[in-house]
Amino acid sequence: MKYFHNEIEAKWQQYWAENGTFKASNNSDKPKYYVLDMFPYPSGAGLHVGHPLGYIASDIVARFKRHQGFNVLHPQGYDSFGLPAEQYAIQTGQHPEKTTKENIARYREQLDKIGFSFDWSREVRTSNSDYYKHTQWIFIQLFNSWYNNDTNQAEDIATLIEKFQKEGNANVNAVCDDNIVPFTAEEWNAFSSEQQQKILLQYRLTYLAETEVNWCPALGTVLANDEIVNGVSERGGHPVIRKKMTQWSMRISAYAERLLQGLETIDWSESIKESQRNWIGKSVGASVTFNVMSSEVETPAQIEVFTTRPDTIFGVTFMTLAPEHELVAKITTPEQKEAVEAYVEATAKRSERERMADVKTISGVFTGAYAEHPFTKEPIPVWIGDYVLAGYGTGAVMAVPCGDERDYAFANFFKGTHGMPEIKNIFNQDISEAAYGEKGGFELVDSDFLNGLDYKAGMTKAISALEEIGAGKAKVNYRLRDAVFSRQRYWGEPFPVYYVNGLPQMIEAKHLPIVLPEVEKYLPTEDGQPPLGNATEWAWDTEKNTVVSNDLIDNVKVFPLELNTMPGWAGSSWYWMRYMDASNENEFASAEALKYWENVDLYIGGSEHATGHLLYSRFWNKFLKDKGFAPTEEPFKKLINQGMILGMSAFVYRVTVATIENNDFLKATNIYVSKSIRNKIVHDKSFANNFLIDLAKNSLKDEIDEEKLRKVAGIVFNDLHVKVDFVNLSDELDIRRLKDDNEFGKEFENAIFIGENGEIIVDENGKYIVGREVEKMSKSKYNVVNPDDICNEYGADTLRLYEMFLGPLEQAKPWNTAGITGVYGFLKKLWRLYFDDNGLNITNEEPTADMYKSLHKTIKKVTEDIENFSFNTSVSQFMICVNELSQQKCHHRAILEPLAVLVSPYAPHIAEELWRALGHEGSIATVAFPKFEEKYLVESEKEYPVSFNGKMRFTIKLPLDLTAAQIEEIVMADERTQNQLQGRTPNKVIIVPGKIINLVG
User: What is the residue range of the motif 'KMSKS' region (predicted)?
Assistant: First the structure.
């Protein structure tokens, strides 16, 4: 009876779907286990074999836990809002909802084909209004909350209003905007409603403010820092500039310390934790204010800086402001205005990440203004420089070149120019070659009342003195900035916000969802408004509590709605809680469901989300905990970042001939040389010259004189990707398929291919060998392997086992389809343990000790491997076990029943079929996992090597409980020993029980 994987897998996938085999219960006496994958964005390209890697690992754990008696929640859904669908809509005019649904259908088909044990009854889609109405509700909760530093948690805004009404804001210890104006209770109560709303916006956890943002003109939207790579947008590679815009922001900075401390309580990799620590960037130091000494400023101005080294206050040589700092335009002198404005404009074209990463380039401009030193009263020149960021700290630094490498380089670069004084040295150390940046090993000098002190004592005394004169105070600073929460896009969650006199008002929760309207165009409007500005019905009627026509806006009863939409991370910042109670129409999840599931026990996904999704989701979870909704402080107990499966790309080599003259191209040909020819051209100059002449005279068929040929500098190659589908296991290119493929257009239609023998391939039968390179698997590199093809040819169980077999889960590894046949062969060998040509071949006889030993070695290994997430070594053990059982001619039920359960988490379809063939009803999914029994691995016999004068001649199997004398008696009586001795008596017999037997002499 043969193993027909297609029939078996289709049969059991249908069975699981019809019977709800993997449906989790919110009411169970079993212990819970929640295993979750980072849900996918459903792109039109579908899945390639790299995508399921983490899903297969999580599925193995989910199935294993079910076998162990857990009530397992293993859901799946789609992060279905986002830029790609919208970009496609802009290009084609097709509604992004349509393409998103089509893409989801494709993903679902592929996911089902691989046999995942997802509870599809809990599927979520962030772009469905029944989901995003809860995202809108959470936004309202954030708007109606403030962060109380005294209680160290978020509280209802009503408690803050009560404080204002009773005592004003002087004693309110809140996370809020800078430069809060103090007021009394009497003043608060006398403020108009609009004044009060503006003040409350300075305290709310989500608020409107003019913010420096990353604006991408090509995409028409603001991007988060983690959406920018090397100064351009991650999506599309478009330029990004810095500009000020009124945006919604989330006060994630309120949770900075809790986000730091929480890292100590969760089982995440140290690298991910360190990424978050660095992103949060905690610094302990002081806030110091410097008065501006500029005649250009009409009212007194101050520059506030945060420094971790207040002990170096007497070493301040100059100050540097971020080019975007609000004081720049105010304090710049007329003489410096042109230079400053040009520098500010140039800086706006560089992203913050680019500026932070560029430590080599030194640039800046003197403003012409000076600030007053708080102690010496000396004038300090004020510069601007792009190494200072407006969003970090105060956007200003007090530059102490003697103690900071970047300030030292800046001062030396501009040494001798107007506005750059000599470097002051306040350490009893040499700084002639470099700054002294250590926090120890020095005494302060030329530092007035700090002379003779070290770092700790100097810091304490400096802060005390600053506080005494009102010029500073101790402060803890964080690099983490509030997160911009607005996008100028269409395909995102609408804000539940309308505006009265320009001030935001929340729509009551009972009227949610506010559904995304239809628009004709998905681009921004002609006057630069977001795409929702194209909607004709996008106003809020406060009497009817519904969305109405814009024509009805009277700013009395009908008001304009927010035109921005929420960012991509809105829906993904709480989705794991929705899975707990996905069909609940009234709440994002019931209190009972939240209490039962608590949080995610195992979360698997990519490390690229370390400072984006993983930070935002922890922030929202902590907020919902403060508000009494989330039951735990942290959302994900254990996190594993799966490695990347890399593709083996294929290249053809296009020849381009270059001349010496001006490095111009003499001839860009449509000729492609095979790999060995390319290598010869590169490494053999004589061959290259001959090839070049032949190419010119024969292949190109151009009249090129010898004089011109002598000026040829050489041959340049363009390495062009071709589809790996067109290349066989011997790296030979199918030229006819390449030429006929529509995706490449006419690029290769008239191409000339030169094969391994150096001659033109005329009948497509010659061998053209491609180049190979391991790269990220990507559609653009034509190295994508479709999992559907693997499933069709070899089966989903083969795919699952092979992806685990490739290597440790957390490491990157190259895909090689050639290796998959070995895994497929293993499954067929497993099948033959249960079946022969006549059908089921199972005996109820008692297995041998060796059979039990093979089984229990495997039980022990696989159990440990799954618990340690070492899935690749389990597959190796399965292969060893099946080989051993095959050699032992094992067809014993007592061995093969538990073996089917052991294999089930990895290869569930074949396991189900074997279980049914063994006579069992129902699914194998919840059958108890086999228990390891040590007794089957206890050795009762030992196979001794018997050596004569140190050379092993034969082996003998003996019981382990024999004494040395008993072993010697048996060995000496053995016929093989007598043949070796030929009547001689050995001088010495060395016996170590359980180890060696050696006869000497």
Answer: 776-780
